[in-house]
Amino acid sequence: MVRQTDTNYRSWIRRYDTLSDADREAILAHIARLPRRPLISVVMPAYETPERFLREAIASVQAQLYPHWELCVADDASPSPHVARVLEEAARADARIRWVRRETNGHISAATNTALALATGEWVALMDHDDLLAEHALYEVAVEINANPDAALIYSDEDKVDAGGRRNAPYFKPDFDPDLLLGQNLVNHLGVYRRDLLTAIGGMREGFEGSQDHDLALRAVGACGAERVRHIPAVLYHWRQAAGPASFSEAYLARCVDAARRAVAEHLAARGVRAEVITAPLAPAYLRVVWPLPDPAPLVSVIIPTRDRVDLLRGCVEGLLHRTGYGPIEVLIADNGSEEARTRELFAMLARDARVRVLPMPGPFNYSRLNNRAVAEARGEVLLLLNNDTEVLEPGWLREMVSHAVRPEIGAVGCKLLYPNGRVQHGGVILGIGWPCGVAGHHFVGAAGGAAGPFGQLALVRSTSAVTAACLAVRRHVFEEAGGLDEENLPVAFNDVDLCLRIRERGYRNLWTPFAVLRHWESVSRGLDLEGENARRFRREIAYMRRRWGAVLDNDPFWNPNLSLSDSMRTLAWPPRRERPWRCAAS
Fold first, then answer.
1. What is the mean pLDDT of the chain?
2. If you placed Cys at 215, which of 32, 100, 208, 236 could pair as Cys (CB 3.0 to 4.6 Å)?
3. Cα–Cα distance for residue pair 402/511, rounded to 1 Å
4. Local structure of residue 456 (DSSP, 8 states)
5. Are 390 and 417 contacting, i.e. CB atoms less than 8 angstroms apart?
6. Nearest CA to 37 among 28, 45, 46?
7. What number of CA atoms fall less than 13 Å from residue 81's CA on the CB side?
8. Which of 137, 136, 142 is nearest to 26 (CA)?
């Protein structure tokens, strides 16, 4: 498991996520200066909640430093009398608390809608009956609303809390990712919605119990658009773990996953997408979307720069031609001055296949120029940049990559690359990470190839700032629109990261998929960049990337600022890179 230990997390909490009296004073002063102080309705369905946990949940709302809230609770006909008693006591003691008892048990969707009917706030925060809010949770939400008045949906990071009150298992989330939302309920806790948006989409839908929050988030995003979704990279919600009877989602996992599958399928159908939604193979609590291909499927131009190394190139091309299930391909071998006789023999043999062309490109090695010149000769609608030290492992890999690359909103698509020992070499690119350059590095390097990763990060399609050109699919017109690879400034290193960032700059999203898997003998054919002229050239490329993309490299939206830049395994940042908003307001 590549997740920070709970012991270290508790130390991190003490140091970076525990408010001092001075913090509280600064927060209260900041609240008083906020131009907008919207009423936030905390909506809570309750059913048979253990008394202690219900009281603690209510107390966590009452402890909010932001005072402009109301708590709206629906008791879903709990058989035990203590639920109504606790709610009645709380409402009598605090006028901001309102509750109603349903006559019949309708389950969580119906009960949430009943509680929602009590709400009068401009915004609605969803809360389970036994969970806890951080004391600054609604303050952080109010700050986000002021900073982004057009926002319609706001979500935060979250963790779990056990029966003894110990926090564990933090989920430090990326900024909003529409594809990750298809695979899992990325919004989840704390989810805060404009009340008029919830009214417009009809609130919770009955029949989706167990995944009702996921269904709600999908419909909300479909109605408001991804650009109106905001993420607060702070743990504002503590999800109760093993509190009393098992929740519906714990007791009926298969039914919950089926409800999520139906919700995702309906969401896609509403967009006019006819896709297959299935359980994610490595993470059965999550989902995979199998996207359709156009009919006819587009021609893919596979571009492979090489210089000799017959042992690598033969296996790479044979896998393309004979072990790949996708039909319309052409293979363009950009030959950078091969000299060995056996290379010429291999070229002659490959040229007998009408799908293969060998393009002579002598001269100094310039990866960007080799690919750009090959693109000029390519006939395909989709380009696949591929290293000669890759091997095909299963037939469906190219279909998967093309199915994403042809989506209008998607730019570059990367795959899961494995070292020869079966461990992960590439799980997407993280900006700002990595020794010795601090420009970019690969996610989950060294993780087990069959691992799902924490919160399914190695098992789900997700957005990423960049992917490696060792295996990168992109529509030809997107590649050309972005200007191709930078031959002058980035002849060898980081040209793929630079390309992906220029693609993203033009409004496209880059994706990584775990459902296309190749073996990669990283840098076997070219070597590393740590000595002599290679090292000097590498330093020049690092300097260029910092000049061109410095602010972007330091703020990867898909790498939470609470995560470390010293490695790619989702360990904690000591300290976090996010400045607390009350301290920013005071400076």
1. 94
2. 208
3. 11
4. G
5. yes
6. 28
7. 0
8. 136
Asked if 143 and 34 touch (Cβ cutoff 8 Å), the reply is yes
Contact call for residues 460 and 474 (beta carbons, < 8 A): no
- Interval 472-502: pLDDT, tens: 999 999 999 999 999 999 999 999 999 999 9
- Taking only the tens place, the pLDDT of each residue in 67-124 is 999 999 999 999 999 999 999 999 999 999 999 999 999 999 999 999 999 999 999 9
Q: Largest Cα–Cα distance in the chain?
A: 90
Query: Mind giving me the DSSP string for 32-74?
Result: HH-S----EEEEEEESS--HHHHHHHHHHHHT-SS--EEEEEE
- What residues have CB less than 8 Å from 68, skipping those under 6 apart? 37, 38, 39, 40, 138, 142
- ∠ Cα 113 135 218 (to 5°): 35
Please, which residues have CB within 8 angstroms of residue 346's CB and are 6 or more apart in sequence? 310, 313, 314
Q: How far apart are CA 204 and CA 249, in angstroms?
A: 16
DSSP bridge pairs for 563: 572
pLDDT band at 567 (very low <50, low <70, confident <90, very high): confident
Tokens representing residue 457 in the block? 């990060």
What is the C-alpha separation between 569 and 172, in angstroms, rounded?
12
Whether the per-residue pLDDT at 244 is higher than 60: the answer is no
| CB-count burial class (<10 Å; 0-12, 13-18, 19+) for 440 | buried
Tell me, rounded to whole angstroms, the distance of Cα 204 from its chain centroid.
24
Query: CA-to-CA distance for 20 and 93, rounded, in angstroms?
Result: 27
Cα separations in angstroms, 430 against 324, 465, 534: 29, 7, 23
User: Which ranges constitute the DSSP H helices of 357-424?
Assistant: 367-377, 397-405
Whole-number Å distance between alpha carbons of 87 and 104: 17
Residue carrying the six token digits 């003894």: 164
Residue with tokens 């995979």: 288
CB 205 within 8 A of CB 125: no
The per-residue DSSP string of 252-274 comes to THHHHHHHHHHHHHHHHHHTT--
Task: State the pTM of this model.
Answer: 0.94
CA atoms of 22 and 586, how far apart (whole Å): 12
Cα 550 to the center of its chain, rounded Å: 22
**pLDDT at 585 (0 to 100):** 76
